[in-house]
Design brief:
This is Olfactomedin like 1. The radius of gyration is 39 Å and the shape is elongated. The chain folds into 2 domains: 103 residues; 254 residues, Neuraminidase (6 Propeller), CATH 2.120.10. 34% of the residues lie in helices and 35% in strands. By secondary structure, the protein is an alpha+beta fold.
Length: 397
């Protein structure tokens, strides 16, 4: 009996052990399944995070592309607006030419031209010339007869640049504008300070809101006038003391080709003479010949434009003096600079009777030649040197 009881207990014990083992195996399988599911969820979360990062990067690239396209559209809008304004100007000129040729054709069909009509036309031409002189306040009566001497004031800066001063009576400050693209001006108290060896330590540094393009900038009555870099033909008027933009304008027709073949970085060359502010540039419609525009520096508007007979080919610079354009030519490899094209906007100078005027004692090239109406001299930038040329003048014929 006892044996039977022991056997029965053994069977129960074994059954209990086997049941416990089965439960353990089931729990292990369940834990293994849970671990695999958690690992799968972690992998999916990692993939989701990576996808989010990829989407964020793609969205950032897309945003940058959209912003770039919008900036391009703004530039394109500015260029289109400028081209439309230029086209309107050209249409107006063409209409004037058509009217003129129409009047010439009509007059040629006449059998006889009355003396009264001829007198009337002469009177009208004289009246137009008189009005133009009043607009220019033309009190100049001298013309350039030669370049007497040179003085190298300093050698500092890049190959291309400009140095200038305000031609007003009370202004003695010198301004250095280094390079053909920059936005920093150095202002010196006077030329003696500028000539010192470590000149930048004593210079007032002026930072422009927009960089300039080329070397054709001038300072007049406390304002810097310059061609804005990145624009086709926008001219900025910058107040030097207040350090802000006072005004701006678009110069129709300019900016598409260099003003001078040998100075390709300068598309618009601004100039000052006894009559104020001028712009010198070239246009494809004139066959590359130089165009002169008188600008009202107060209202920043065009007063008059002249298509000259001076070619921009082999030209390196030009300047205005007493209502007259003087174009400086050179050789592409450099050499002796010479003035061999002159254009007086009032017709008071016969350009064909003026011999070529050579710059003395110097071989090289100029990136800038500006006229100083106060001192009657030229401030030039030649291969990194700042040069003063003294002038010899004579009465206009």
């Amino acid at each position: 009996m006892v044996v039977l009881q022991l056997q029965f207990l053994s069977v129960l014990f074994l059954a209990s052990i086997m049941g416990e083992a089965q439960h353990v195996m089931q729990d292990a399988a369940l834990m293994n399944y849970i671990d695999r599911r958690i690992l799968s969820l972690e992998n999916r979360l990692d993939k989701c995070n990576q996808d989010i990062l990829d989407y964020v990067e793609e969205f950032r690239d897309f945003s940058q592309m959209v912003l770039s396209r919008l900036a391009g559209l703004n530039n394109y809008e500015t260029e289109v607006k400028s081209e439309v304004e230029n086209l309107l100007t050209r249409v107006e000129r063409a209409q004037r030419d058509i009217d003129y040729f129409g009047s010439v054709t009509d007059s040629n069909t006449c059998v006889e031209v009355g003396e009264d009509l001829v007198k009337q036309q002469l009177l009208e031409a004289e009246e137009e010339k008189r009005k133009l002189k009043l607009v220019l306040n033309a009190s100049c009566d001298h013309m350039l007869a030669g370049v007497k001497s040179l003085k190298v004031v300093k050698k500092t800066g890049d190959k291309h640049g400009s140095w200038t001063k305000d031609p007003g009576k009370k202004h003695t400050k010198i301004y250095l504008l280094n390079s053909s693209v920059n936005n920093v001006i150095f202002e010196f108290t006077n030329i003696m300070t500028f000539m010192e060896s470590n000149h930048t330590l004593k210079a007032r540094k002026i930072t422009l809101p927009f960089p300039w393009e080329g070397t054709g900038h001038v300072i007049y009555q406390g304002f810097l006038f310059y061609h804005r870099h990145g624009s086709l033909n926008e001219i900025i008027k910058f107040n030097i003391q207040k350090r802000n933009i006072a005004d701006q304008m678009v110069l129709p027709g300019a900016g598409r080709i260099p003003a001078y073949q040998l100075s390709p970085s300068t598309k618009i060359d601004l100039a000052i003479d006894e009559q104020g502010l001028w712009a010198i540039h070239s246009e494809p419609e004139t066959g590359g010949n130089i165009v002169v525009t008188k600008i009202n520096h107060v209202t920043m508007s065009v007063e008059h434009t002249w298509d000259t007979s001076c070619s921009s080919k082999d030209a390196e610079a030009a300047f205005m003096a007493c209502n007259t354009l003087y174009v400086v030519y050179n050789f592409p490899s450099g050499g002796t600079s010479r003035i061999q094209c002159v254009y007086d906007v009032l017709g008071a100078v016969n350009a064909y009777e003026i011999p070529a005027l050579h710059f003395p004692k110097r071989q090289g090239s100029h990136s800038t030649v500006h006229y100083d109406p106060k001192e009657k001299q030229l401030l030039a930038w030649g291969d990194g040197s700042q040069i003063i040329y003294k002038l010899h003048t004579t009465q206009k014929v």
